[in-house]
Write a structure and sequence with these properties.
178 residues; mainly alpha; elongated; single chain
């Protein structure tokens, strides 16, 4: 059975627990995983919707100004959605597992970096002049390439995952499985 992308993203964040000691007095692994997935599922859906809408609208924009408006709107929405998800993940607390503080902090930090990448791309696109269409579209392409690089850099490596309790929770709780 194919695991949803959200579960893989969540497992990536858990890699930060490698070698860290100490337990928290927060929610148990299953409750924490459910809260995190409840925060990230609507975020992921909103990012997908915004991206799809921008991909559909931008090629049909009659002018660079219209394309710019579409992209700025998409990037603002993605930034805001990322901030909401970050806040909800932070509110989930610290899972009661070894290295739980690092897991929670890593997840929040990853979403902060994603939010900041969208914000930076929004400022860049919004600042592009539209009087020279080829130059504008080259600028958009460069901004999107930077966004992709920063987005990719915000995820964590799953190869060092050392929390079997959280691995199991993310694989089993209904909120994380679609």
């Amino acid at each position: 059975m194919r695991r949803p992308l959200i579960a893989l993203a969540l497992l990536a964040v858990l890699a930060v627990t490698g070698g860290l000691a100490g337990c928290s007095s927060g929610p148990p692994p299953r409750a924490w995983a459910a809260s995190v997935c409840e925060a990230l599922t609507p975020w992921r859906a909103e990012i997908d919707t915004l991206t799809t809408r921008a991909q559909e609208q931008t090629p049909h924009a009659a002018t660079p100004e219209q394309a710019k408006d579409n992209l700025v709107h998409m990037l603002e929405g993605a930034r805001d959605a990322s901030e909401r998800a970050r806040g909800r993940v932070e509110a989930a607390g610290v899972p009661e597992v070894e290295g739980g503080q690092a897991v929670a902090a890593g997840m929040v930090d990853s979403l902060r970096k994603v939010r900041d990448a969208y914000a930076k791309a929004r400022v860049t696109v919004d600042g592009l002049p539209t009087t020279d269409p080829p130059k504008f579209y080259d600028g958009v392409e460069a901004a999107m390439k930077t966004l992709q690089q920063e987005y990719a850099a915000s995820s964590l490596d799953t190869s060092n995952l050392h929390s079997p309790e959280l691995q199991k929770a993310f694989a089993e709780v209904p909120e994380c499985i679609s």
